Amino acid sequence: MTYITHVPQTADRARTLLEQLSKFKLFPITVATLQMVCHDAQNGFYTSSIHMKQPHITDLKLHYGEEFEIVHEQLLETLQEKDSTGITLLHGPPGTGKTYYLRYLINEIKEKSLIYVPPDLVNEMTKPGFLPFLMQHPNSILIVEDAENIIRDRIQDSILPSQAVANLLNLSDGLLGDVMHQQIICTFNCDVKGIDPALLRDGRLVVEHKFDKLSVENARRLCVELGMSGNGEDIHEPISLAEIYARTSDGLANFANGFGNGHTTMKNKRPLKKRNQKIDPFLGFYS
User: Fold this and answer.
1) How far apart are the C-alpha atoms of 284 and 194, rounded to whole Å?
2) Each residue of 114-148: pLDDT tens digit?
3) How many CA within 13 A on the CB side of residue 27?
4) Per-residue buried b or exposed e for 210-236, using 16+ beta carbons within 10 Å of the residue's own CB
5) 33 CB neighbour count, 10 Å cutoff
6) CA 188 → CA 25, 88, 142, 155, 254, distances in Å?
7) Looking at residue 55, what DSSP letter applies?
8) Separation of alpha carbons 220 and 237, rounded Å
9) Dist. CA 167–CA 79, nearest whole Å
10) Contact 44, 143 (CB under 8 A)
């Protein structure tokens, strides 16, 4: 209950202020703790705690499409299952929402520790000491950001090491997986066709989600929700959330690195999907 103390002469102003205050909503700020993987020649692999606030998303369907809320709930349930294994692949063009959603997701996970491999240490996953290090963190969730270099097809890619793919396969449902019970989340920008097909096998894959631009309808709905001038009526083709928030003065600062919509494949259900992005023929990256 909100009370405003005023003198009789300011009753009208106080009433107007009370009406305005009643429209505000308070949202709790949650902070997740991640164990970030570090490495140096003297100490080998070790972790350092970092804290990450949950992004302010009031409606997952509005930001990521009508079906995404169901995808999120199923993914969250699977990730929090005790002694579970599997791999989740979040991919799409840069700026379409992978990191932003990932920050939201990890703040929803309450029952497991989170091991985060930053982009500059992804290639270190091929070192012999990496698996023994992970064995110190059973029943956790391994988050690998910008994983392009370690998930590409081992047959087609003769330049980059393939040991990291073997490690992921072993952790997701190999002998190590039976012992360590780790879930793995990988984000990457290359097309899913360019990754090692073994990562997509039924029983190993939990979710494969492609982040994409918002439809015209959803983009306009978001503009209305954000109170933007014109309500997005000038939007006539699919647009990313980054482009929408760029229309506001502080939008990019508040929502940097996290926007998107997309298509999803759940475990054991991987229908072929049309993709209209242009792909680099050598690296397989979205343009």
Assistant:
1) 6
2) 999 999 998 888 888 898 999 999 999 999 998 88
3) 11
4) bbbbbbeebbbbbbeeeebeeebeebe
5) 11
6) 35, 11, 15, 19, 22
7) P
8) 11
9) 19
10) no
Determine if residue 86 is left, alpha or beta; phi over 0 gives left, psi from -120 to 50 gives alpha, anything else beta: left
CB 223 within 8 A of CB 217: no
Model pLDDT for residues 67-112, shown as the tens digit of each residue: 899 999 999 999 999 988 999 999 988 778 788 899 999 999 988 9
* C-alpha of 279 from chain center: 22
Containing H/E element for 35? strand 31-40
Cβ–Cβ under 8 Å, residues 64 and 261: yes
Two tokens, residue 125 = 């996953």
Instruction: Evaluate whether 213 touches 244 at the Cβ level (below 8 Å).
Output: no
C-alpha dihedral sign at 249, 30, 115, 181: negative
Question: Which domains, ranges and CATH numbers included, belong to the chain?
Answer: 31-212 (3.40.50.300)
Q: Torsions phi, psi of 116, nearest 5?
A: -110, 125
Residue 269's DSSP bridge partners are 266
Q: Nearest CA to 84 among 168, 169, 182, 176?
A: 182
